[in-house]
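JOB MANIFEST
job_type = single_chain_structure
chain_count = 1
residues = 235
[input]
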Amino acid sequence: MATRSTVNVFVVSPDTRSERRFDLSLTVAQLKSKLELITGIPIQNQEISVLPSEDATQPLCVLADDSRPLGFYGVHDWQVLKVADLNPATSFTGQLSDTSQVEKFELSETEYAQRQDTVLAYKQRNKIGRFADKPAEESQEPQNVDIPIGARCEVESTEEDFRKRGTVQYVGQTEFAKGIWVGIEYDEPIGKNDGSVKGKRYFQCPPNCGVFVKPERVKVGDYPVEEINFDDEEM
């Protein structure tokens, strides 16, 4: 059996999350160069850990030797490369999230409420958000959604040429949000859950293959299983 030369992984950092394909012959130093473009973390600030999943607390290993190839560490498909920023104060991302160096201007709640040049005042004047006129009570009758359980489908995606295909496993109301939701088991682990949300199970599927979307984002049809091609040069 031929040996695989590439690996599909999730890349997560303090400000980013993406799915990528990397060549296993890449050295850790070369990998860091690519990850700088993806995460915004400078090469010298990166610490890369390999995790079995995003909710894992203990790493399988740390890519500590810049001269070693990625394959040396035994990285497998759909594992997680967690990129930590060892010095956020000097990173581009750190400048956005580290507020310790920013001089703060503070107002009390009473002072803020009395000002007329604030977002709060604008929302009050224009009846936006919680200041909007309350609509009539929404009907509690379920929507008529013609999406059968077991149907093959494709979920609308904002990414060009990225098809999210799967099988409909649930259609109905949920406890996590109002309205009708469609539960889908994706063909690939690109989802959010395993068919349960906040401790409530609606259907069963492998981890990270389940997702709930609104009916208008679902197209039912003859959608065969299609292998996702991750390009490591995509931003």
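[summary]
Residues 4 and 122 are 58 Å apart (CA to CA).
The chain has a mean pLDDT of 85.
exit_status = 0
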